[in-house]
Amino acid sequence: MMQLLDHAWVAIIAPVLAAGAIAVVGHRAKSFAPVLALVGALTTLAVAMAGVTALFQADPHGVGPIADGGWEWFKVGGTALRLLWALDGLAAWMLLVVGVVAAAVVVFSTGYLAGDGGWVRYFALVSLFTGSMNLLVLADSLTALFIGWELVGACSFLLIGHWFERPSAARAAMKAFLTTRVGDIGLLVAIAALWSACGSDSFAEVFDKLPSLPSPTVNVVALGLAIGAMGKSAQFPLHAWLPDAMEGPTPVSALIHAATMVASGVYLGVRVWPVFEVSAPARDLLLVTGVVSALGAALIATLQRDIKKVLAYSTISQLGFMFAALGAKAPVAAFFHLVTHAAFKGLLFLTSGSVIHGSGTQDLHEMRGLRRDMPLTFGAWVVGALALSGIPPLAGFFSKDAVLDSVWNHAPLAGGVLFVASALTALYMARATRLAFFGVSGADTHVHESGPSMLLPLAALGSAALVAGLAGGPVARAIGHDSEPLVPAVALIALGMAAVSSVAGWSMAPDPQADLAHQRSLGRFGVALANAFWWDRLVERSIVAPAVGVSRVLWAWGDRLAVDGLVHGIARLTESAASALRSLHRGDAQVYATTMAAAVALMLAATVWLGR
Fold first, then answer.
1. Centroid of chain to Cα 606
2. How far apart are CA 249 and CA 232, in angstroms?
3. What pTM was estimated for this model as a whole?
4. Are residues 587 and 470 in the same domain?
5. Which residues form the domain of 420?
6. Looking at the 3D structure of the chain, how many domains does it have?
7. 566 and 451, same structural domain?
8. Does pLDDT of 429 surpass 90?
9. pLDDT of res. 271
């Protein structure tokens, strides 16, 4: 095991090499594509398991790296850019999340995407994403982290647009790419400021020099990191890309947009926690952003008809819980909820994929009664829904209550809002469950249960959703903290609100007609929820349209008149001069001789005059 830990970087290299091998040989042997992708995922899982096992055998309060290393990328003068990696407790648990979900998604995809025309490209990109995510997780320097950060964004763009022949998928991919780039500007500014202030890109060296940095510099760095995290984790106001990302294949939604990349903003917050710990403005931004995202996305999810968009807005909401915990000085609660959320939200997304595969629709109003024909998928969905709703003894009960307790103690108003968001979670999951799985079937096509390749990953993630709540203590110790005991009052209040909300959600949607009637009864507010508060329209009118208008003016006046005018003017001037000179070339030897003699005379006269 120690030999594997000393070479933990294979978790990065193996999936990347698998991606290259799939791209080279996949078209000639398509059956090898998922096998190679699974090898990369299992390598990640092996390194993670070795790391977690080492944690249990080490000093329970030790937070130093289990193994580390790195390479010098290039050197300019006395400045070297280094790609450093380290496997510590935080990285080991995050690698475990990536490895489990990636392996489940690869196996599930073999059934879900059977016969897909982009089979080879899909598995190559999934494998490349896994390696890139592992680089982000294991990074021990700013340079390595930023490379992994951008690579996972590129893979997300390509996988959202997997079915690029559909205009909606192409637009969604571009929207995700551009929106997350806005956040990445903040991250890049933070990295540049840290490099300038500290003269190093190593986390350890940066953290050592933090106490000597002026407060304005620390705040700029922390705010830049917070903005970068908000963009990647789809937090308000950079949240609208995630629901549209559901245009990609459902397994991609489970891997990237529920469990791993979309949670990397939270992981970044925990990784650079010493920076946030000394910056109150950045923590306040995280708290406000998290609370607004948690409540707003939960409200929107209550009236969505697309089963994947219900889960997408749920993901934004749950990530908001994690951001609020970071803002409340509770990184342990935030990361613990990240770990459990990966299990049950990955389960729910894959279950929704099984539902879509078996029923042929994503519309909750067109499903109905699926529990009869898809009993195993129904069982998996119930486990995930109960875990997400915070029902004991499933994982979400322990991690969400830890977040609620920490935020309530830090800022009671924010904690109260999160209690409401938690109750809404149970409401929209009860509504979705009744619409999809109960009542008289409304599917137009023959409904069928999924095959073993899709059901086995559901069983694995379902098991994780059942037991992940027990990991609170080990997760806390892995990042240098003692676990906090469950507060009975908080647990009872949250559980009571979840029970009442579940009944309300169940009663509001006995059938599609009643669901629509409920929406109409909410009037303008119901229309606003169904249209996500018209956020896309607001962004289109206030940012996109003005930007397009300015671009057109710059194109017309700056590019066409100024730049093109200058270039074309020089060309026309040259052409005119050439035409004038061309008239001198008549083929007359006497004119040429006279011209040459005159030129020589002028040159001699100029020489004599200049030499006086």
1. 74
2. 19
3. 0.90
4. no
5. 2-477+525-530
6. 2
7. no
8. yes
9. 94
